[in-house]
Amino acid sequence: MRYNQLGRTGLFVSELCLGTMTFGGGEGIWRQIGDLQQADAERLVGRAIDAGINFIDTADVYSQGLSEQITGLALKNLRVPRDRVVVATKVFGATAESANTRGASRYHIMDGIKASLKHLQLDHIDLYQIHGFDPATPIEETVRALDTLVQHGHVRYVGVSNWAAWQIVKALGIAERHGLARFETLQAYYTLAGRDLERELVPMLNSEGLGLMVWSPLAGGLLSGKYGREQQGESGSRRTTFDFPPVNRERAYDCIDVMRGIAEAKGVSVAQIALSWLLHQRAVTTVIVGAKKVEQLDDNIAATKVELSADDLAKLDAVSVLPSEYPGWMLERQCEPRRNQLEQSRNRSVK
User: Under a CB-based contact definition with an 8 Å cutoff, are residues 7 and 279 in contact?
Assistant: First the structure.
């Protein structure tokens, strides 16, 4: 297991992060995603820790708070030393029916941290993330509220999930201007079947030094090897009960065809190829893997040992490449002469 620097911080996290969305169950989509109870969840947490995973991600809305509770109790029951695990959770979604129990307002954030600390049975959270963008709350209010949590010691670092590049950069500018805690991470959807964040978000991450935490690396199970043009998965499987995130199926099937060939040649699973591809992307800090069974987690963990050759990566890139869009194609055209000059200058300096 490799450990990567988290954004511009001095914190190092494992290249795989254990996601806990399958913990708890409850009603609606949470039961469809997973309903692992305490004993089964503890087996997954214990296996992850034994494999060298030191990063666990949850959220206050997963199973209406049950996921946080199960995660916290698992760490306590397994007697995991606090310095062996980096715990991340998120705030934003509705935690009750009243008007102010959702969003990224100071009001909701202050209530949210108290509830999450209680659920997790912790005195601080290592990474506290805003789970979505709130059009009703000024970004400065959100940034200032998070800084208060850092100053009070409730939170060590702050991050964001599912924001656009311009929104994140605006928040970073506010934080820098006022000397506030800045976002250090982005948690975002990224797979071979969905490379949209490469257009704006990856260049922004590289420019501003944020770490990337990947959610749903198997596209909601679509890249698990159970699906293809001629196979639609088992009855009751994740994609058949909860068809999310949205994916262009034809492009995804093209990717799966190539992935299956590489997987067969290496004697590994299709899922391991999907995860390994992500682990080969320079922008990726950690990949969040969730599971319902220890066997699934073991298969995910094995992806850290899968090496993809330059030829493998070229094939996967070719089949999954994003269609050209403006202003990307114009930037590519106009910037080429200056990129060539820069490359020549670098080559001369190396010599």
Answer: no
Residue 112, both tokens: 């949210």
> Contact, 51 vs 1, CB < 8 A?
yes
DSSP letters, 71-82, are HHHHHHHTT--G
Can you give the residue range of the structural domain that contains 306?
3-320
In a domain, 126, yes or no: yes
Active-site residue list: 62
> Looking at the domain assignment, is residue 351 inside a domain?
no
From the DSSP assignment, how many helices (H) and strands (E) are in the chain? Answer: 13, 12
Number of domains composing the chain:
1
What is the Cα–Cα distance from 296 to 24, expressed in whole angstroms? Answer: 18
Whether 330 maps to a domain, the answer reads no
* CATH number assigned to the domain comprising residue 24: 3.20.20.100
- Cα 283 to Cα 279: distance, rounded to the nearest angstrom: 9
Cα angle 345, 348, 351 (rounded to 5 degrees) comes to 155
Q: What is the pLDDT of residues 250-259, one digit of tens each?
A: 999 999 999 9
Residue 23's φ and ψ, nearest 5 degrees, are -85, 130
> Per-residue pLDDT tens for 198-249?
999 999 999 999 999 999 999 999 999 988 887 776 655 665 666 778 899 9
